[in-house]
Amino acid sequence: MAGLLSVACALMPAARSAESSDWPTRPVTLVVPFPPGGGNDTVARQIAGPAGLALGQPLVVENRPGAGGTIGSATVARARPDGHTLLLCSTSSLVVANALYPSLPYRVDDLAPVVHIANTPTIWVADPGAPVSTLKEFIAAARQAPGKYSYASGGKNTMPHLAGQEVKARNGLDMLHVPYRGSTPAYADLATGRVNLMMDSIVSALPFVESGRVKGLAVSMDQRMPRIPSVPTLAEQGLGDLGFVGWVGICAPRDTPPAITARVARGVQQALADPALRETFAKEIVEPIGEGPEAFARTIERDALAWRQIIATSRASERD
Questions:
Q1: Per-residue pLDDT band at 14 (split at 50, 70, 90)
Q2: ∠51-14-54 over CA atoms, to 5°?
Q3: Helices in 126-252 by DSSP H: which ranges?
Q4: Which end of the chain is more exposed for a tag (fewer CB within 10 A), N or C?
Q5: Fold matches, 28-119+245-314 and 121-242
Q6: What predicted TM-score, i.e. pTM, was given to this entire model?
Q7: Which family does it belong to (predicted)?
Q8: Which among 53, 85, 73 is positioned nearest to 266, based on CA atoms?
C-alpha cells in the first residue's frame, strides 16, 4: 500500500501544469463492476450526468459485473491509460478483493485513485417474517437455533458477505451464506423468507425497508433515520463496531496522465457542488465527499488495513 501515496502525489495538478487540451475526444466510459440497480450503480448514474457536462463529453456507465467486482476492475486496470476508461472503485472491489485474493490479475497500485465521490452508510435487514426487530435480537435467535438461519450477499467475498462472516465469527453462529449476482436479486428471496439476513448499503435497501418488503434491524449511522425511525442504530444495540461504511470513488489505469486525472477530479467536484445532486444524495443517505487523489489514497490505505484484519478475524478465504 505504500505505493498509493506516491501514485496519488504524482496525480496532483502541481506535478504537471500543462492540461491535455485535446481530452476528452470522445465519450468517457465509467465501468461499474457490479450489476445495475445496486448502490454503487446508483451513485455512478447520478454522478455521470453532471460530471460529463463538466468534462465536455458524456460519462457513460457500463456495467461489467462478476466475481465480487474484480472482473470489471481488472478490465480497467488493463485498459489503455488515456483517460477514456475509468473505474467506479469501491471498498469491495478494491481493498476487500485485494486483501482476499493474492492471485488477482491486478493490484491496488494498478489503479490510480482519482476522486472520492461519496460514503454509503449501511443497514442490516431481515425477512419480514423474522421474529425479531433488531440485529441484537437476530443474533440471539440465531445462536439458539444453529443452522436455521441464512444470510445473503450481493456476491461471494463482497463487503456484505464478509460483514456476515464477521457476525458469525464473533458470535459463534451457524448460518449459511447465500451469494447472489448483486443485491437486487437477493431482495426477492429475502422478502419471501428464503434467506433471512443481509447487510447492504442504505441506497439499495431503503425502498425495500420503506415498503415493508424487508425488515430493518440496524443502521450504521449515528442517529436513527427520520424516514425509517423505527429502525435502531447499531450503537443503541451495543453493536457499533458492526457499522461497516462503504465508499465509492473513481480510479484510473495507473499510467493515466496526471493532467487528465486532475480534470476528472475537478469535474466530479464540480458535479458534487450542484445543489440538486446534493439533495438527491441526502434523500438516499449518500454522503458526498469529493476529496482528490492524495486524500482518497489515504482512505484506501486505511481501509485496506482494516479489512485485512476483519478477514483474518472472520477466517474468510477464497474457499469460504
A1: very low
A2: 15
A3: 135-144, 159-171, 183-191, 202-210
A4: C
A5: yes
A6: 0.76
A7: Belongs to the UPF0065 (bug) family.
A8: 53
Say what the pLDDT of residue 315 is.
Answer: 61
CA distance 262 to 254: 13
- Per residue in 239-275, pLDDT (tens digit) is 988 888 889 999 999 999 999 999 999 999 999 999 9
Distance CA 138, CA 320 (A): 23
Q: So where are the chain's domains?
A: 28-119+245-314, 121-242
Distance CA 182, CA 34 (A): 7
Assess contact for 58 and 29: CB atoms under 8 A: no
The DSSP letter of residue 67 is G
Q: What is the CA radius of gyration of the chain?
A: 19
- Counted residue by residue, the chain has a size of 320
CATH number of 28-119+245-314: 3.40.190.150
CA atoms within 13 A on the CB side of 264: 36
* Residue of 197, 196, 216 whose CA lies nearest to 206: 216
Neighbours of 208 (CB within 10 A): 22
DSSP states along 69-137? GHHHHHHHHTS-SSSSEEEEEEIIIIIIHHHH-TT-SS-GGGEEEEEEEEEE-EEEEE-TT-S-SSHHH
Amino acid at 236: E
Report the candidate in 167, 177, 163 with the shortest Cα–Cα distance to residue 139: 167
The pLDDT confidence band at residue 60, using thresholds 50, 70 and 90, is: very high
Going by C-alpha positions, the residue among 114, 108, 112 that lies closest to residue 96 is 108
**CATH number assigned to the domain with residue range 121-242, chosen from the 4 options 3.30.530.20, 3.40.50.1450, 3.40.190.10, 1.10.10.10:** 3.40.190.10
